[in-house]
Design goal:
Layout (H helix, E strand, L loop, with lengths): L3 H14 L25 H14 L17 H7 L18 H12 L18 H14 L4 E6 L23 E8 L10 H27 L4 E4 L6 H7 L4 E2 L5 E2 L7 E8 L13 H7 L2 H5 L30 H11 L5 H5 L8
Antiparallel strand pairs: 1-2, 2-6, 3-6, 4-5
Helix pairs in contact: 4-6
C-alpha cells in the first residue's frame, strides 16, 4: 500500500507522462560547474569520484558557491551579530538527570562533538567493501538510524570556519561520510507550541548517540572515524549526495519514507565504503506546484517563487539553484514566539506520519 507521500509523487509522475506538466525552463544565468577543491591524499581516485558525484547531483551548483561559515548559521549569528533580527541570548535548559546524557546533549546542541574515537587505521590489506558497507548500515540502523547513506565528502560542504571563527578541516584521509537519518517524532501538538518544541529535544541526544556508536563501530574494525551532528559540514547537502532524499522548497531534506520528518547526523571516516547515488523521485517537480509550506510559514521565510541562484539574507550562501529560506525571518519568529517552529515539517504534504 502506498504511503501518502508516494501517492502524491505518483500523481506528479502521471501528470508528467501525460504532458500536463512541462519540463522546468532553463535557469537564467550560466551554471558552470563548481571548481574542485581536492585533498592532497589520494587525490587521483578522489578527484574522479568527486567529479562523478557532482555530475549526478540533482541541485545545480555554480562556481560562485563557496564553503559556508558556521558563524553565519542562524543560531550562531544570533549570539554575536547585533544586526541580526534574532540577536540575544538563548534560553537556558535544565540539566538532564544523567551526567553523561547531559554532556552528550550539550555537545549535540552546540554542534561540538569532538573526535571522540581515534582509530589507528590498523586494518591492512584489501577489504570486501560491499560487505563492510552492508554491515555498517545494519549496525547504524541498530543504533537508531532509520535511513543510512554513504557518500564521498565534497569539500564544498565543509564549513569554512566553525562558530568560534576557527578553520574547519577534516583529518587527512577522512573522505567518506556515513549519513544517518533518524525518524523524528510526530508531535501531538501542531507547532509552534511548547510540547512540539519539547519533543525535539530528545532527538538531539539520539542523534549524538547514533553518530558516536556508528563511529565506534568503524574504529573497532580498524578505521578512523569522526562523529558529527550539527558541526563540521552541511548535513542536508551530504544527505542529498548520499541518496537519502531530495532538497525541498522548505530547505529541508525530503525522504521517500518520512518526508521532511527526519533528523540528520553523520560520521566521517577513512573506510572506503561503497557510496550511494543521489536520487530523484519527483520532489522538485512537486514543490514547484505546491507551495503549502510557504503559505503556512508564520514568518514568511519560505520562498513562494522559483528556484534562484542566491537568497534574500546574509545567511544565504549563493551559488546553488534552489529555493532559499530567509533564516533571519525564521529565527526572529522563533525568538518572538519563545519556542522552536517546525510548521514547515508539519504542513508538508509529503510528510508521512509515524506508523
Amino acid at each position: 500500500m502506498l504511503t501518502r507521500g508516494e501517492f502524491l509523487l505518483s500523481l506528479v509522475a502521471t501528470a508528467l507522462e501525460s504532458g500536463r506538466i512541462w519540463a522546468e525552463a532553463p535557469a537564467a544565468g550560466p551554471p558552470p560547474a563548481a571548481k574542485p577543491e581536492l585533498p592532497t591524499d589520494g587525490a587521483g581516485d578522489f578527484a574522479r569520484e568527486l567529479a562523478a558525484l557532482r555530475a549526478r547531483r540533482p541541485v545545480p551548483v555554480s562556481d560562485r558557491l563557496r564553503r559556508f561559515s558556521a558563524r553565519y548559521a542562524s543560531f550562531a549569528r544570533s549570539r554575536w551579530d547585533v544586526g541580526s533580527p534574532a540577536y540575544g541570548p538563548r534560553g537556558s535548559f535544565p540539566e538532564e538527570p544523567l551526567p553523561t546524557g547531559s554532556a552528550v546533549r550539550r555537545g549535540a546542541d552546540a554542534g561540538s562533538i569532538e573526535l571522540v574515537h581515534r582509530g589507528q587505521g590498523t586494518r591492512q590489506g584489501r577489504a570486501d567493501w560491499p560487505a563492510v558497507t552492508r554491515q555498517l548500515k545494519q549496525a547504524a540502523q541498530s543504533f537508531g538510524a532509520a535511513l543510512v547513506g554513504v557518500t564521498r565528502v565534497d569539500p564544498l560542504w565543509l564549513y569554512a570556519v566553525d562558530r568560534a571563527g576557527g578553520p574547519v578541516q577534516l583529518p587527512g584521509g577522512l573522505t567518506t561520510a556515513v549519513v544517518l537519518a533518524l525518524e523524528a517524532d510526530d508531535e501531538a501538538d501542531a507547532p509552534p507550541s511548547t510540547r512540539a518544541a519539547a519533543a525535539s529535544r530528545p532527538a538531539y541526544v539520539r542523534m549524538a548517540a547514533a553518530a558516536v556508536a556508528t563511529g565506534r563501530f568503524l574504529t573497532d574494525l580498524g578505521w578512523r572515524a569522526q562523529p558529527s551532528v550539527n558541526d563540521t559540514a552541511l548535513s542536508i547537502a551530504l544527505a542529498v549526495d548520499a541518496g537519502l532524499g531530495e532538497l525541498g522548497r522548505n530547505g529541508l531534506l525530503i525522504t521517500r519514507q518520512f518526508g521532511p520528518r527526519v533528523r540528520l547526523c553523520k560520521v566521517f571516516t577513512d573506510a572506503r565504503l561503497v557510496p550511494d547515488a543521489a536520487v530523484t523521485f519527483g520532489v522538485r517537480k512537486f514543490c514547484a506546484l505546491c507551495a503549502k509550506c510557504a503559505e503556512d510559514c508564520p514568518s514568511g521565510a519560505i520562498s513562494r517563487g522559483e528556484p534562484a541562484w542566491e537568497g534574500p539574507s546574509r545567511l544565504s550562501n549563493p551559488g546553488a539553484l534552489k529555493w532559499y529560506v530567509n533564516g533571519e525571518k525564521c529565527l526572529a519568529f522563533r525568538r518572538a514566539n519563545g519556542n522552536s517552529c517546525d510548521t514547515c515539517v508539519r504542513s508538508c504534504l509529503l510528510n508521512n506520519p509515524a506508523g
